[in-house]
Give the backbone structure.
Amino acid sequence: MHNPLLDMTGLPPFPSILPEHVEPALDATLEHCRARIAALTAADRVPTWEGFVEPLEEVDDALNRMWSPVGHLNGVCNSEALRNAYNACLPKLSAYATEVGQNAALFRGYQAVAAQEHLSGPQRKLVDNALRDFHLSGVDLPADKQARYKDINQELSALTSKYAENLLDATNAWSKTLADEARLAGLPESARALARQTAEQCGESGWMLTLDFPSYQPVMTYADDRALRRELYEAYGTRASDQGPHAGRWDNTQTMERILALRHELAQLLGFANYAERSLATKMAKDPAQVVAFLEDLARHSVTRARGELAELTEFARAEHGVEALEPWDLAYYGEKLRQHRYQVGQEELRPYFPIDRVLPGMFGVAERLFGIRITEVPGLETWHPEVRFFEIRDAAGTLRGQFYLDPFARQNKRGGAWMDVCTNRLHLVSCDQIPVAYLVCNFSPPVAGRPSLLTHDEVITLFHEFGHGLHHMLTQVDYPAVAGINGVPWDAVELPSQFMENWCWERESLDLISGHVDTGEPLPDDLYGRMRAARNFQSAMQMVRQLELALFDFRMHLEYDPARGGRIYQILDQVRDQVAVMKPPAFHRFAHGFSHIFAGGYAAGYYSYKWAEVLSADAFSLFEERGVFDPVAGAGFREQILEQGGSAEAMDLYVAFRGRPPTVDALLRHAGIAG
Ligand SMILES: [Zn+2]
């Protein structure tokens, strides 16, 4: 049988990739990778950059080229058969990753290369990263500790998935069916239709509310029925805990304690004092003290302002709606009322000004002016769906720098959300020259009845965000995949280019490029623009302190863990709230029991990364505020020092090279309307 996944030169042949190709292709590719690694580590000559590291980069690249289209199709063209094939491959991939991470011969090979003096900057960074990652995989531990390391990891992965299962089961277990539509007063039509459809799917009449976000969030934001909001607030805020309607049923309490204990033990096994230190080993932030000081500094600037915003909201609710005391389940509801009252601007009103056929060339125009590149569509390419478009990027000299697929619209069997993913990496060696290719995937409303797809302003921001990730991947000039593009970029810095690009969705000059009324072509009117800008910072200090609360809680919980005292989870959360929160939830509330970013996702002692990267992107943009939003020198600087460099140097060094100084929080606070 011819297997297209084993013949991956050039772009993936999407139309001919079938589910039955997946597993055999992965087996064959892993066999090839293992054989290459065995041969490279068995050779009896001293490992060198050219003879050892470069071939290993090609090994990784072969696996990526084969697997990337499979993972991608699983996201954008899911089917039962493909999902089964994909899931069957996951354990094989993770076993391979563990095996490589703990391969002592490979580790010694990189050590030998590291000892050589002639390495370039990017080469040195790649080798340093590799040694760090081997160390973090426990490769250099004595045998007994290595065994313990494996046990801990296995138990942790079982515990984190147990945590997620409990949360999912608890979320799914709760629902409320309403016989009378009057109780949904205030909810927009889309939320009512969803409630109706959910009831029908369960064979019930009436309207069914659940704790899934698309159901929960509109109730909290729009439902006039205060008792209903309170009921959902309690059900949501006590999921998988010892409180609420399902108290004790899927209780994560013990699981959380055990996760914290094991993370701490794991960190100490690797020579760190605590898990916060372990987390920072791969991040841009230097040490725990820097992270805590960073968060507390932002808090100092925002808390007073946030309290003022709450006081405003309280006064509005009292004066306009006769509410004497605001409760936590009132915040989103009256917040929305106040926002409408003050700015009268909604996402729907902006939609006609952002037809996708205007936004897309406008966005390319922004990137062309900023970075001196040219983006053109390449028609006629066979992809995975007729709506998918394909583009190429050339630099000022006409050199092809990257290519990307754009899959813009929502459809059946396509995962929700928006993302950029790597199709192929830049790989530039004597033996091969491969350019980077990206997938940009969004879920915008498709065109209906001959009218183009109209984006909300939030969707325009999403598009710029993912395009920013894409530019980081595609404009890289680093030759080795492990540190090219977004690879090897620390977690707390990787959102810099994406959030940076979002800024051009808010400037008059760039909005003139990306907006135009779908019927008249008229640019966004000044009055609407003014209201949109003003609404941007609505309750921004309250949002800021909420994020700081989560980040400080996550970080301190891992930093201050003490086996003798246990996790002290809610004790620490209370302390953090005393410091930064504007309103404390009631005693029954169990936020941590549903904080899956930390207990089931990859954000443990890393939630601060969101704010960290925001500081970088705001501070980077402030250079354009000083010099002009299309200043070509600033644009070239960002391209050369950030986008082209990828993970080939320390993130802080790259940033300083671009900005001429380390980042400060001033621009973020100013953009959020909090200071300056
Ligand atoms: Zn992102």
Observations:
- The longest strand covers residues 400-409.
